[in-house]
Amino acid sequence: MTLRSIGPEDVAGRLSWRKIVDALEDGHRLPRARIGDQMLEREGKALLTRCAWIDGLGMGVKSASVVPGNAGEGLPTVQAAMLVFADGTGTPEAVLDGTMVTDWKTAADSVLGARFLARPDSRKLVIIGAGKVAGTLARAYAELFPGLERIEIHNRSQQRAENLCEQLRRDGLPVIRVDSLPAAVGDADIVATATMARAPVLMGEWVSSGTHVDLVGGFTPEMREADDALIGKARLFVDCRETTLADVGDFAIPIAAGLVGPGDVRADLYDLAAGQQGRTGDAEITLFKNGGGAHLDLMTARAIMTIAGV
Description:
Number of helices: 10
CATH class of the largest domain: Alpha Beta
Low-confidence stretches: none
Distance between the termini: 11 Å
Number of domains: 2
Shape: globular
Mean pLDDT: 96
Oligomer: single chain
Strand order of the largest sheet: 9-8-7-10-11-14-12-13
């Protein structure tokens, strides 16, 4: 079998957020993935490798290098590649651009959570953050929630927020920059956070009944985006119990403090795809933690490979 190399140019114009979200939902109806991570660090640089094995999809390994000094050389600070092996035989099938896989996976993970948990009639989305992930979230939510009438972007740097708004408006999205975050959050139907915060940027007192909260940015035990008040008042969900409860601060910190326990997390995406109840009423606040994981990379990579004809 010839090992295929797949980059963005191989699927240009043929991918959609709906296709990837559908692939993730289908993937969560397969047996639970076996997953494992490893990180090597030296002199401020890192190599992160994430592996997943899913019966029915095969095996996947995504490795990413993190070299902060690359910025001064005009190179990306994070570079990645993903290798996919056939189910059953273990034959290597394809090497995919790792950044492409990550970009599609991350936003689709969040929107799948919202498909299960947000009110279908949601009209207003607020995004906290103005980086690359914020842009993909705006596009993914707009496609899967066509009833959205307003998307508001907030960022500490107003110029970065305005720059992102201009990009999204060129794509036809109803986007504006907002400076008062409490006011924006107060009447939002969906709030998504895409920051690198190590202290909460979203306060429970701002969040109104019926809101769906999507926490995306935190990925270490020290990082968190929601305060204790929000964790305490929301109905809690995660994409995968194994990759979130001990590994991301939004849950690890309040669990360690005794505010909530692992049993307070009602379901993950496997449970929701199996039919477990998510939102119980229009007035409920739902909170979903997007923790990522190699199983999501593998599900996304398989969808991309199918579109590329592999």
